[in-house]
Model the fold of this input.
Amino acid sequence: RRSSGAALFDASAGVVYVPNPNYWGDAPTVERVVAVPFADFDTQSAALLAGEVDFIYPQFFAGISDALSDANVTSQIDFGGDYEGFYLQSDPARGGPFADPIFREAFAKSIDRDAVFEQIYIPLSEGKGKLLNCGPIVPGQYCDDAFADQYDPEGAAALLEANGWAKNGEGFWAKDGTAPTIRWIINTGNTRRENTQAFLIPLLQAAGFNVVADNCDAACYFQQRLPALDYDMAMYISTAPPDPAYLVSSFTCAQIPSEANSQQGQNSTGWCNEEASALLEKSDVTVDEAERAQLVKDALALMAADHVMLPLFQFPKSGFWRTDRLGGPVGAERNNCRAFNN
Done:
């Protein structure tokens, strides 16, 4: 094993990590590390406050710092690789309303992301964070703010009218007598996303888009309908690794689920832009960091121009630990997938 530790499963405790005697590096500073499972945040936080555990890594939410306020507990909150966005399913083979690039562009330009941020994310972020403009990636060397300043309702209306669209008797944009129904899917029980629908659907309907909530539970949403591209608009969180290679599997033409890839492709938006695909595929084999970053930025600019997703918010990562039990650089790896390293 290359690891400095070995894991042993304990049915009552979860996972127990003990030192590997054959490891050739620096010796660990503790005899074991026990990872303990909890069913929910309330029991997890109670265990930390009671001193039953030393460190927890909960999903951030508004008020979490107050819930864990204690003289012997400290926290570190930074922004990591989790981000949320709107996605518009655009695969022509599936024939949804956003397969029409004109209608898709007008719809995207009719969403006021600043208003969504103020309504939904400012209360969540405890004054931290800002509207995400990078696309399906978090700020850093690959971010060029390509999705900034997209809101243009007047331009959206003019674009539709110039391409044969007109509002029908119900006030919805229609072409050749048909006003598309836009199915917006989220996972039921997610209060933040339900609140987003409640806030935004009336505004979009007033703008002329017949948007309806078409939700199902998490298993249905993430395991069935998203992989099958059975939706028109979706809202979900993705976790971006530090390296942007995931963009190739998530957004290139060859990764749209089809018979050619046995329906196993991971491009669940159905977006196909051959130029962007070529840029992303080239970025995946480019060694020069500056050149690679530019290839990714160019591909994301094409994505923004095609209006297939709208980024919303980069989520904070939160770690809490007992200062009477732990010391040193506990939070050094806290804002990525290695939160427990130290």
